[in-house]
Structure formats: C-alpha cells, structure tokens
Design brief:
heterodimer, A: about 450 residues, alpha/beta, 4-stranded parallel beta sheet, about 15% strand, B: alpha/beta, Rossmann fold, 2 domains, 9-stranded mixed beta sheet, two-stranded parallel sheet, 14 helices
C-alpha cells in the first residue's frame, strides 16, 4: 500500500493556471478607492511591479513560470501527497483520505509558492525593499525567506494578537533578514490612529494591510506584497492543484471532494482551481469546499459586494464576500484566517456555486487536529485543521453509506509555531465565537450605504 | 435553615488599604499587603482594628462601634471613610455587607470585598482572600482599572414570602486585575471590560435602529447601551427603548405587556447578573414568563462581556416556568463585542441543581 505519492522535480508544473479564463461570470473589476472607477494598471504601479500587475489583470489561461523561480521552488517542490491509511483505519472508514502537505516548505506552509515569484518580479524591476503584513506569521516568514534569496530588504507588519502568541515567528523572520513589527505600530499614520483609539487592540489583518500599503507608498523604492486575496497570488498557488492532479493520476484516482482552509484565499484556490475546468467543461462531479472559522465566516455569512481590502480604506474596492472592512474578528487561534473579505476569484466561484463553503468552531477544529496528529503524526497548523474537521466528518459518514469516497485534504502547513494554541485547547481555554448574522443584517439594513 | 451570611455582624472598611472582620480571612488578605505604603482607616475592635494591629499595618480608628455591631455600624463606618476621602474601601463579608457598604459609598470610592459570607454574588468580591489582598496591592501600586459592577443580594421581601430571588441593589465601582479575572492574556490582550461594554453598546445601537421596542433588563452592560443611545435608563430596573428614546421607564410586568400589545412585538436584551450568571429569573423579575412568551423566546438577546462569560461556565435561566426555561436553554449566541458573539450553554437552573432555595 502506497503512503507517499511523489513526483520528480522535473514533473513540477512549468506553467501557472489562470482560472480567470474559465469563469462562468466575468470578474467584476477592482475599483479605485477614491474615484470608484475601474482600476487601471498604472494605478497599481506605485506599490506593485509591472510583471505582477500584468498577471493580476491577465485573461491568459496559462502563464509561464520563470526558470529562476522554478529553481527555488525546487527546494521543496513537488510536495508530497499522502494517503492517510492510519487515519482511515482509526476512523474505520471505507473512504480514501489523501492529504497534500505543503508544510514541507522551509517556511512550513504553502506561502513560499507565491512569495518567491513576488520577490522575483520585484527584484527584476529594481525594487530594493518590500513591506507586507502577516496574520499568523506564515506569509511574513515566507516572504522573508523569498526576499533574502533575492537580496531585498523586507519589513513585516504582524497582527499583534499573533505577534504575542507566536514570538518565534519574529525570530525566524530575523534569521531570513527581515524586520517584523507588531501591528498596529507607531511607524505609520494608520497604525497611530488605531492605537490612539484602541491602545490595547490585538490588531487585525485589515489594519496590518493598511500599515504595509502606507509603508510602501511612503518609502522610496519600496513595494507592497500580499500573501492572499489578489489574482496573481492565487495564480502562483496553482502549482499545488496541478501537482495534486498528477499525483492522483499515478494511483488512478480522482477527488470526490477537496477540503481546504480559507482566510483570504490562497492555498485553497491554488489546490482546487486546476479542477474547476473539469467541473465546468467536463462535468466532473467534484465538490470543492472552502473551510472557514465560524468566528470570521466571510464566505458563509458575508455579503457579496464591493468593499475595501483594509481597515483604513487605502486599497482598491474589491467585489467579494465581506463582513465589512471595519470588522475586527475575535482573536481565535487560527490567526491566518482572520480576514474580513476573501479573494475575488474565489468569491466569484462561490457565488456561482462552483465552490462551496462551510464554517467551523475552533474547539471542534482542534479536536480534529489532535486526531490527525495522533494517527498521521504531522502536527497541523490551526488554520489547516479547518479542512480536517469536515474531512473526518465526511469519512465517518461514509461508514454508514459504505461509500468509498475519495477525500482530499489540502494541508497547508505545520503547527510548530502554534503550540501555545494547542496548550490553550487542552486547558479548555478556547472560546467558540460566532458571528451574529441576523443582528448584523439588521444593523446593515439601516446603515447608510457606502 | 442555613446561615444567611454575615450581615449585621460585620463590615469593614479601610482607607488606602483594607480591614477585615472575619478575622482569619482578613488576615490572609492583609498578609498580601506587607510593605504597602498606605494609611488604613478602620472601625474599632473586631471591625478591623484587631486584624490590622496583628498585621502590623499603619492604621487609625475613625469609628467606634458598640460591642455588638450591626449593619448600621457598617454603614456609619463606611460613611466616615467617605467623609475622610479614602481611596478605596475594603470589607470582609458577604452580599449583605456589600449592600451596606455600597449603599453609602455609591461610586464615590471603589470597593473590594474579601469573600467571607455565605452568598457572594456581587461583583465586588475577589475570588479568594489572597486575591483580594493582591487586588488591593495592585490598585495601590499599579493603578488597576476600575469597572462598575452589580451589587446583588437576596430579595428579602420575597424571601420572607417564601421565594428565593436575587435582586440588584446597587452599582459599585471595583478595581480588577485582568490576569486574575479573565482569559489568558494572549487571547484578550489587556483590553479592559469597559471597552467590551462599549463595543456591545455600539453594536446594539446599530441593530436597535430597526424600529422595534427593546426591553432592557437591569445591569451595567444594558445601561451602557442606553447611555450610548442617549436614552434614559434606570440602573436597577427594566426600561423600554424604541428608536433611541425611552418609552417606558422602570417598567412593571404590566407595563411591559402593554408595550408588547401596543407594538405587536418587542425584543428583550438581558445580561447575566451576579456571579452565577442568571440571565432570567434573577434581578429582572418584571421580564416574566408571560412577557417572554408574548415577546417570543426567539426575540431574547443576551449580551455579556467576555470577562463575565469567563467567570460563568454556563448561563442560567429560572423564570419559574419550567417549560419556558427549557425552550430558552441550549446553546445560544451571547453578544460579547462589536458584531461578535460567543456560543454559551444556557441551562434551566432546576436542571443543573443550581436552584439554591433548599440551602436556606
């Protein structure tokens, strides 16, 4: 019985897949935050390199991966696909459970898949410094590593709740030569304004984005980089899904369902987008399920509308599911999933019912994570564990139906920096938060529209 | 019959420090205060003087009680402390003592209770005598945050008529140390409870724009909602607010039923009262089973700060109507911040053996 399904280095994808070419409904354009007019490429040039802007706006189905980028991705790619035999036995399920593990990257998650090309395009265009934000620290770590490969400076604004929870994230960023500061910080206007009103806030991704964008806009030769949400980020992550397809083909299998966690959208879209044409054009019966926290249930309870990507309203307006750019999600332990919006490409497909979404509470998520760790060994990140919960439920349901369903989990990263969260879980200190959807709707009904 | 607290027995207070009455417990609290630079004002004999003398603290007796002090002496001593302009009043006792002290002190000076009574549901009590001492030291040396909290006690009138019920008797100010009373720091950071009350109030002020009549129960969290709306609210009573205006002040059950009939519907906002976390059936009796049934249990909105929720493992209802209690109980959303809720277990108190009528 095969446990690891591996590809050779040469089988690593040579192209990225751009799902924008295959959508049922064309993507609504991002709007300029001041004028409300559709964004032009030159509007983005202040904070992004042209190479990435072209990808952001591209309608080409396939985009070549530069050799310099592939050479670096080779350090950990292709990533392994595991058959979870031990978990299956533990659950006594007839289902076949696979997990594609992105935690083998040096930064411990899928984030380097886009950090490397982003740093590369910035370097190519002579940029010397990058500002970014990070929620749980995965993205900040990945970009720190990528910028060190291309000898760029890097400053990371890390959401304070996570900064305090995971001090070693800062340490690893320092090893890779980056500067990591807790957000909100005193270094930007956006940060100072928030601190004045809420001196003790745990911060949010929306605030950290405001700080990083402001930093990039106000420093010479500095660009901004984002680890999720934007089209080019999702594009870069499609190496995952392409590999997954090839790996399953080796064992002559195909997913009935793929579960992946979603914060702003990068790992999950990267894993499932290559399967979207199969569903739309070849009528394959595949379910793609985005898994999010009940405390920040953007896709399951948000409104599908234009909203800002950040708290300070500096970013373009994006058409997406949103809980409101002023919503600061509670400090759950899956810090990487605390974002009020989601990637427009992903939202488009959820809205068109090509992709489904479900939400889960953190205690049940940690319970699933522990079951996984005790059977498969890998200690999953709390974020990634959101995909484990429904996968395990699904496998248990198969016991009753006898269905030999093929369940694929996108396991986006390890949880070695999240041990204090596991401690809190075992101590019974995790609170199950919920989004009061009805009362929020009632509030929004009478709030003047933007 | 069990004991009914230490009311009438004792009450102590202190200026810039503490004083005990239930000697052993007071001594434990005072032991935490060695080296504190403070002058203690106290009442004579067992009302503080003896324990302070033992502890070696610098003190001054400002009130001399008779041989057998009563509740009146607690009040007289407290009133002397206020006149002397103390920074903090510390007493040792239960809910009855808390009432006596807070009735006089109001919000003029913060209060810390060293738990030594039978019933200690008021929010001024530290979790233990040692924690009380730590709180006093923290307040004096680190300037801890102050929060407003409810003073609750048994409703004596009803108690005499054979019903156990808890009533809110007042609001007091009390220092609190986040680490001693709330979640792990890494989860809540050091955000204070008042900030969360504000967040809840801002959210409520948004959803309350729907034109419905809102029945607001007693307590400081619901009071904050009214304050933010600029509407009048009785702290200890039940009020009805509609479109940002108070349409019925200090409402009786009959008033509430009339409002529901006139409006055709109403929504109810309540907050857990006291250390046991009663959301219904203690404190706001006007929100009767009939009021709840007519408003519809689905229109019950529970609000509470994360701090309060941390202190109460589950919330309790005891409306006196078991069927209704069962309808309301279960996993419910409790609004705990701006557009944020927690899922908490709400239980019928009769089912979890928390109805303490047998213990009196």
């Amino acid at each position: 019985m095969r446990t690891k399904i591996l590809l050779d280095e040469e089988e690593m994808p040579k192209r990225w897949y751009n799902v924008a070419a295959d959508l049922l409904t064309p993507l609504d354009p991002p709007l300029h935050p001041q004028t409300g007019e559709p964004l032009k490429p030159e509007d983005l040039e202040m904070i992004f390199p042209k190479g990435l802007i072209r990808q952001e706006m591209s309608m080409e189905r396939w985009i070549e991966i530069p050799d310099e980028v592939r050479d670096i991705l080779r350090l950990w790619r292709p990533t392994p696909l595991f058959r979870a035999h031990r978990l299956e036995e533990h659950l006594k399920t007839p289902a076949k459970i696979y997990y594609k593990y992105e935690g083998v990257s040096p930064a411990g998650s899928h984030k380097p898949n886009t950090a490397v090309p982003q740093a590369y395009y910035n370097m190519k265009e002579g940029i010397e410094r990058i500002a970014t934000e990070t929620g749980a620290g995965q993205w900040g770590s990945a970009l720190s590593m990528a910028t060190s490969f291309f000898e760029l400076e890097c400053r990371v604004y890390m959401v304070r709740a996570s900064f305090d929870q995971k001090p070693y994230r800062k340490s690893i960023m320092q090893v890779w030569g980056a500067e990591c500061v807790a957000s909100p910080s005193e270094l930007t206007n956006a940060g100072r304004m928030i601190l004045k009103e809420h001196p003790d806030t745990g911060g949010s991704l929306g605030i950290a984005i405001s700080e990083a964008v402001e930093d990039a806009a106000t420093h010479d030769n500095t660009n901004y980089a984002l680890g999720s949400v934007l089209n080019h980020v999702l594009l870069h992550q499609t190496v995952e899904g392409q590999e997954l397809k090839a790996q399953l083909a080796i064992v002559d299998d195909y997913p009935d369902v793929i579960y992946g966690c979603v914060g702003g959208g990068s790992n999950f879209p990267g894993m499932v987008f290559p399967f979207v044409p199969d569903k739309l054009k070849e009528n394959k019966e595949i379910r793609m399920v985005a898994c999010e926290p009940s405390a920040c249930p953007t896709l399951t309870k948000g409104l599908f509308t234009y909203d800002f990507g950040d708290t300070a309203r500096l970013t373009p307006l994006l058409k997406m599911y949103t809980l409101g750019h002023d919503f600061i999600p509670p400090s759950i332990h899956a810090g990487g999933l605390r974002y009020h919006g989601d990637a427009p490409l992903l939202c488009n497909l959820v809205h068109d019912r090509v992709i489904e979404a479900m939400s889960f509470h953190q205690n049940e998520v940690f319970k699933a994570a522990v079951t996984f760790a005790r059977t498969e060994g890998i200690l999953p990140a709390p974020e990634a564990s959101h995909a484990l919960k429904p996968a395990i439920d699904d496998a248990i349901a198969c016991k009753k139906t006898g269905e030999e369903k093929t369940i694929v989990i996108s396991l986006s990263g390890h949880g070695h920096f999240d041990l204090s969260s596991y401690d809190a879980y075992f101590a019974g200190n995790l609170v199950d938060y919920e989004y009061p959807e009805e009362l929020v709707k009632q509030s929004l009904a009478k709030v003047p529209k933007f | 019959m069990g004991l009914k607290g230490t009311d009438g027995l004792a009450a102590e207070a202190v200026a810039r420090g503490a004083v005990p009455v239930s000697p052993r417990r007071a001594e434990i609290a005072l032991a935490e205060l060695s080296g504190v630079d403070a002058l203690f004002l106290t009442a004579g004999g067992d009302m503080g003087e003896s324990a302070l003398r033992k502890s070696g603290q610098r003190y001054q007796v400002v009130y001399r009680p008779p041989q057998e002090p009563t509740a009146e002496d607690t009040q007289k001593a407290s009133s002397t402390f206020i006149e002397e302009g103390v920074d903090l009043i510390v007493f040792c006792g239960g809910d009855g003592t808390a009432r006596d002290v807070s009735e006089v002190a109001g919000l003029q000076a913060p209060i810390i209770g060293i738990p030594a009574g039978v019933k200690m549901q008021s929010g001024v009590f530290a979790v233990s005598p040692k924690a009380a001492g730590e709180l006093v030291r923290g307040y004096l040396e680190e300037g801890l945050l102050i929060r407003e909290t409810e003073i609750v006690d048994v409703d004596e009138e009803k108690y005499r008529a054979g019903t156990l019920d808890t009533k809110i008797y007042g609001i007091a100010a009390t220092p609190y140390k986040p680490a001693l009373v709330q979640e792990r720091k890494q989860i809540y950071s050091s955000r204070n409870e008042e900030e969360f009350k504000e967040e809840i109030a801002v959210f409520a002020s948004e959803f309350m724009r729907d034109g419905s009549a809102y029945i607001l129960g007693a307590g400081t969290t619901t009071a904050k909602i009214a304050e933010l709306l600029g509407a009048e609210k009785t702290l200890l009573g039940v009020d009805v607010i509609q479109n940002g205006r108070t349409i019925c002040r200090d409402a009786s059950e009959r008033d509430l039923l009339r409002v529901i009939d006139d409006e055709g519907r109403a929504k109810i906002i309540v907050s857990p009262i006291g250390a046991q976390g009663f959301v219904l059936g203690r404190g706001s009796q006007q929100i009767s089973p009939e009021v709840l049934r007519r408003a519809g249990p689905e229109n019950l909105i529970i609000v509470a700060t994360p701090h309060k929720l941390k202190e109460t493992p589950h919330l309790l209802v005891d409306t006196g109507d078991q069927k209704l209690d069962e309808t309301i109980s279960g996993r419910r959303q409790v609004i705990c911040g701006y557009r944020i809720a927690q899922l908490k277990d709400v239980e019928a108190s009769s089912r979890v053996g928390m109805d303490q009528s047998g213990s009196f």
